[in-house]
Amino acid sequence: MEREIVVAIPTFHREGSLSRLLGEIVPHATATNARVLVIDNDPAGSAREVAARAGVDHVIEPGRGLAAVRNRALDEAGGARALVFIDDDELPAPDWLPTLVARWRETGAAAVSGRVETRFPDGWHDPWIEEGGFFRRVRFADGALQHSAPTNNLLLDLDAVRRRGVRFDAAFGLSGGEDIHFTKRLVAAGEEIVSCPDALVYDVVDPARLTRGWVLRRAYRVGISTVHTDVAAKTHARGRLAARVRGLVGGGARAAVGGCRWFFGILTRSPRHDARGARAAWRGLGMMVGSVGGSYQEYSRR
């Protein structure tokens, strides 16, 4: 019997965190009669045994990148009515999935976006990264309408997705931003994304990401993706040109102001000004690069 709800977990060489997630998520799936599906972007199927031990479904998507994996989830969902995405390095809070599903049924929205909170490894402390707010996330009020949403805690109404003919764009597969582009297109087509902060998951940060180099590269990539998704959302050449100009001018301003604050922070030995200035400068630089067509393939190792 086909399930009404499918929970999709994209994964790539994260067997340990995937195993922890599956141990937590199976009770959620039982409570909502949902099917859990692991979509493995490793052609060798390194997540197969982990999925088998948890008693959940596993498929291999050999196409490189997140867009291919997420589109495979859309295809594998078949006749289900809702598709839920959660990342393989996250853990759900109690009642996460039932809360997300209840909000969808209550509102009939095309998408319901849950809240994500960051958890750092025990004993970890770096004032520079903490003051920079590199892992802080935008918060939305309960029931607020969002203009876009990431897929690390997102329910999609598949009837709405099919009706609008929206897919994840392969152009963003290795750079990231495919989820923001997808959800922006859904909203542009007339659908709504509703915020549901009570549907909470925790993002458990990989220690390898807790370095200055990684967080600044992520800020740079986000700057590029922000402009790329804005440009791609425009249907006319004039609109795309305007989006590029806004990205170039806005990015230049952000980089200049951020660079000054960065320098001031170094001079005054202020971790707050140092980190936040660096973050703004790198993001602004990314916006400028994105405006002239440049890219950064953050997920190229896939």
Which structural category fits the helices and strands? alpha/beta
C-alpha Rg, in Å? 20 Å
Average of the residue pLDDT scores: 93
CATH architecture of the largest domain: Alpha-Beta Complex
Q: In CATH terms, what is the fold-level topology of the largest domain?
A: Spore Coat Polysaccharide Biosynthesis Protein SpsA, Chain A
Q: Which stretches are poorly predicted, pLDDT < 50 over at least 5 residues?
A: none
Question: What profile does the largest beta sheet have?
Answer: 9 strands, mixed
Number of strands: 9
What is the helix content? 40-55%
Domain Glycosyltransferase 2-like: 7-153
Keywords: Glycosyltransferase, Transferase
Pathway: Cell wall biogenesis; cell wall polysaccharide biosynthesis
Protein name: Glycosyltransferase family 2 protein
Explained architecture:
This protein is an alpha/beta fold and 302 residues long. The chain folds into two domains: 5-209, Spore Coat Polysaccharide Biosynthesis Protein SpsA, Chain A; 212-291. It is 48% helix and 18% strand. The protein has helices at 15-32, 48-54, 66-76, 96-107, 127-132, 158-164, 178-188, 212-232, 237-268, 271-291; strands spanning 5-11, 35-40, 57-60, 82-86, 90-92, 111-119, 145-146, 153-157, 193-204. Strands 1, 2, 3, 4, 5, 6, 7, 8 and 9 form a nine-stranded mixed β-sheet that branches. The chain starts with a strand and ends in an 11-residue tail after the last helix. Keywords: Glycosyltransferase, Transferase. This is Glycosyltransferase family 2 protein.
